[in-house]
Amino acid sequence: MKDTGTVEKRKPAFLFRLLVLTLLAAFVLSNCPGLTGGETGEPEQSATPVAAESTVFKTGETQESVSFTLTGTYTGVWKVYTTAAGSTVMNGVSAAFSVPLLTLTAAGDLEARTYYVSVTGTGKTESKRLALTVAAYSDDEIRQKPVSTPLLHVGGLHTDADFDRIKAKLAAGEEPWVSGWNKLTANSHAQISYTPNPVTQIVRGAASGGPSENYSRAFNDAAAAYQLALRWRISGDSSFAARGVYILNEWAKICTGEITGTTDQSLAAGIYGYQFAVAGELLRAYSGWVSADFSAFQQWMLNIFFPKNRDFLTRHHDTHDDHYWANWDLCNLASVLAIGILCDRRDIYNLAIDYLQNGNGNGNWYKAINYLHTVGNEELAQLQESGRDQGHATLCIALMDFICQLTWNQGDDFYGLDDNRFLKACEYTAKYNVAGLDVPFHEYVRLWGNKNQYPNPLVEKHTQISSSSRGTVRPMWSGPYYHYVKVKGLTESKAYYTKMGVDGMSPEGGGGDYGSTSGGYDQLGFGTLMYSR
Predict the structure, then answer these.
(1) More exposed terminus of the chain, fewer Cβ within 10 Å: N or C?
(2) Quick check: pTM over 0.70?
(3) Spatial contact of 286 and 245, defined as CB atoms under 8 Å apart
(4) Which DSSP helix (H) or strand (E) runs through 430?
(5) Which domains are seen in the chain, by residue range?
């Protein structure tokens, strides 16, 4: 009974304490709704918007609206603020969301600055604010030259000055030119005995009920024509030129049908288009190439390859702009440039110059290299394909260097565009693939799908760099390294990882040195021989 009596005596004090605690809990929860998880009757907070990329450049000096890609679906009322905190709503600027784009619009010109946006969903409180930066229009632009401006010859990947330098280095027995030359002369495609295998119609991608694939014949013969042209220009032995011209003449004579297959036909039109055109440009100075045959080859490039290049870049097989990965656009742009040079068509060349800076697809320089990172003293740039796999990310580097070389030899500096943006992409890709080190990654959102099947695009998110095919080997590092460090005179620290690629690949070979499948022929190669300085 003693224990029971004790309890009875303490009950009033216990009840008083319980009442105080209950009142205190009610006060805390009413003033801190976030602690309740929305269960107290207080409205929950709207989800904070998230952007795939928080900075977008204006495309003109005066521009009324700019759109940002958001990574979720948001409904409600949008507000635009001048600061990250505070109640000052921005006058004259509105925000409207239509999946997946949030568009900021001003009554006149949208000022270049940082805007802070929020959304308030029905029955919810206002979200936290998302910072979105509208960057000023940059006149860092490579302008199209008038159509009447002549193109330079030989002005493909290599010039007369390049061949003079290489011949002098070989005569002096200097490395790495000797090793690079030996790599070329050992290749089975670089022999006078090489026999071409043209087809009436190039097929890449076996469509149901369609013809079988045969595109390997194109990439082998294009590689051979290029390698034979190099041997002629460096050795002076015209028998190599004669064999290269024979290959090109046979293709122009026999291959009269339209490139076909699955949508992979666009890869064939791009990759083999640029390779055949570059080989033709190298051989144009050979006196043994009959004028009528050279003209027929030019017309073949205009009839078979260019229409496919132009259609792909214009229509993308009726898909949304981001559907095709950057390498698809880039190889077709390389083909357009090379064909424009070969055929003395400044209008064609200019199509690519414009698209590389303003195009809707992922071959646009600023979409192909889609995010800039600064890590300590390192300037790195992420590729549109970095989150896909490294086989294609490295292909983008190879194709972009090809584009840089072609345009540099015509007086257009894509190497230097946007403060050497391409070098930063080389460093990012080499750091991850050659040095084997980690790199930062910014979330990327791809909007894809056929427009007829999916009027609203499908959404694919990449949240980390892909390790698939990490360490892919391609002959591609010599071009950017020697240009940035030796031609432009940048300090070697700016190309630190790219130099590791050069050292690891030397001497670079070409088609036939990296396996028998198409990946080993996607780039013409021999950079050690052709670009070392």
Answers:
(1) N
(2) yes
(3) yes
(4) helix 417-433
(5) 55-135 (2.60.40), 160-531 (1.50.10.100)
